[in-house]
Amino acid sequence: LLGKVIVRRLGAEKVLAGAVVETEAYLGASDPASKAYLGKKTATSKWMWAKAGTVFVYPVHGHWLFNVITARTNTPSAVLIRAVEPLAGVDIMRANRPVSEPRELTSGPGKFTRAFGICEKHLGLDVCDPKSELIISDAPRQPAKVEVASAHRIGVAQDLPEKLRFYVKGNVYVSRRSA
DNA sequence: TCCAGGATGTTCT
DNA sequence: GAACATCCTGGAC
Question: Across residues A94-121, what is the average pLDDT?
């Protein structure tokens, strides 16, 4: 998903777009940080079993977190979008989320969803459906070679030995909290 | 019905 | 770098 573009359509003309610069992977039953840990299905965690490309939003600390389901049906797993670089509709983003520093606009999972106006009404959308209000597409121009770095996930009490956080090295919109 | 706690963000110093 | 505002979910009872 790094380097792909998240597009939110707002009617005929208005569009919000951002390039994905930071993600985290959440696995299935074996991942203590995953909603699907131990295979437990609840009203919210059941979305982890949805088909790949399904939008999974989940509230934490009064913020919405945006995930995309990634594996095949019945295999729970998701990728959290932690940060994007604004590409289009910056004025609308600033209206949704007034900030002084430009990089504060979308440099965090809760910041990004607020700026994009993403909430529970987008739960279950298909990011691969061209008619969807929220889609993920290729970048209009293929970006210059980006270097991907990995690190441990942020805010996770019991992390796995694998480094499951991935980000575009050097991009200023990557959240910088230490893990 | 109640309560602890979290995939966070902001505002202090 | 640390405190706290925030608010929904799910497990306990």
Answer: 95
